[in-house]
UniProtKB/TrEMBL annotation:
Gene Ontology terms, MF aspect: exonuclease activity; nucleic acid binding
Residue ranges occupied by any YprB ribonuclease H-like domain in the UniProt entry: 85-233
Alphabetized InterPro entries for the sequence: RNaseH-like_sf (IPR012337), RNaseH_sf (IPR036397), YprB_RNase_H-like_dom (IPR038720)
Keywords associated with the record: Exonuclease, Hydrolase, Nuclease
Superkingdom of origin organism: Archaea
Gene3D superfamilies in UniProt: Ribonuclease H-like superfamily/Ribonuclease H
Lineage: Archaea, Candidatus Nanohalarchaeota, Candidatus Nanohalobia, Candidatus Nanohalobiales, Candidatus Nanohalobiaceae
Pfam families referenced in this protein's UniProt entry, alphabetically: RNase_H_2
Listed PANTHER family: EXONUCLEASE-LIKE PROTEIN, YPRB RIBONUCLEASE H-LIKE DOMAIN-CONTAINING PROTEIN
Name recorded for this polypeptide: Exonuclease
Length: 251
């Protein structure tokens, strides 16, 4: 499912109206532009589609981030997937007022970059990474990772943000990232590691300077972000089947 299949952003279009449009064969912006959907505020909908199309042509994800309801932002993934940034942080603890960010892994365009405290983890580098990202994807990042980064580096992260924790709750899954991975059969290396062990690895590295501890932490951090992409693919497919496909005519 793509942005062009969505009408819920337009004035006067709620979930019921959007479903009715899909069921009646209006499954793409082009169908509205070429047809006569006979809905209220039809002119406003057409005007909005024209505006939205112009923003899509210049890859302005920020526009759609403000127009989509939060629970529908996943629909924009296919349009911007090459510049989507899957990210995850590791810290010395859970309190952003007392603890520090140690590493952050950023997976974008098939490559993973890791920023490390005391080396390249700076406000400037974070701003650069997020500037080059159309959309952010995390697990529980809206409540933890993003506010932790904003507080620690005195910055505002304004990218549209998909939090997979809420997507999977909508699909009936509960628990943390690793539990959901197991439920879905998503494999990872270093299964013996968790957040507490990650803190211990950083402390060992900080105390001894032994790079092996840091390398293990970075590997753990990397797999968190790489797996986020696989999880989003699964969630996207299932939500498309749940939200969009039931209202399509058999083709």
């Amino acid at each position: 499912m793509r942005i062009e299949n969505s009408f819920i952003m337009a004035p006067g279009v709620g979930e019921k109206t959007e479903k009715k449009l899909w069921k009646n064969g209006y499954t793409h912006w082009e169908d509205i532009e070429d047809g006569n959907p006979n809905i209220r505020s039809e002119d406003k909908v057409r005007n909005f589609i024209e505006k939205a199309r112009k923003n899509l042509e210049v890859n302005n994800e920020a526009f759609f981030g403000t127009q989509f309801p939060n629970k529908s932002l996943w629909r924009s993934y296919r349009n911007f997937e090459d510049s989507v940034c899957f990210f995850d942080i590791e810290t010395t603890g859970l309190d952003k007022d007392r603890n520090k960010v140690t590493t952050i892994a950023l997976h974008r365009g098939g490559e993973t970059k890791t920023l490390v405290r005391g080396e390249n983890l700076t406000r400037e580098n974070l701003q650069k990474e997020f500037f080059n990202s159309s959309l952010l994807v995390s697990f529980n990042g809206k409540r933890f990772d993003q506010p932790f980064l904003e507080h620690s580096f005195d910055m505002n992260i304004e990218n549209p943000h998909i939090d997979l924790m809420y997507m999977f709750k909508r699909l009936g899954y509960s628990g943390g990232l690793k539990q959901i991975e197991k439920n879905l059969g998503v494999e990872r290396e270093l299964e013996d590691l968790d957040g507490r062990e990650a803190v211990k690895l950083w402390k060992k590295y900080e105390k001894t300077g032994n790079r092996e501890h840091l390398d293990k932490l970075l590997k753990y951090n990397k797999y968190d972000t790489v797996n986020l992409q696989e999880l989003l693919e699964i969630a996207h497919q299932r939500l498309r089947a749940e939200v969009f496909e039931p209202h399509l005519d058999s083709e």
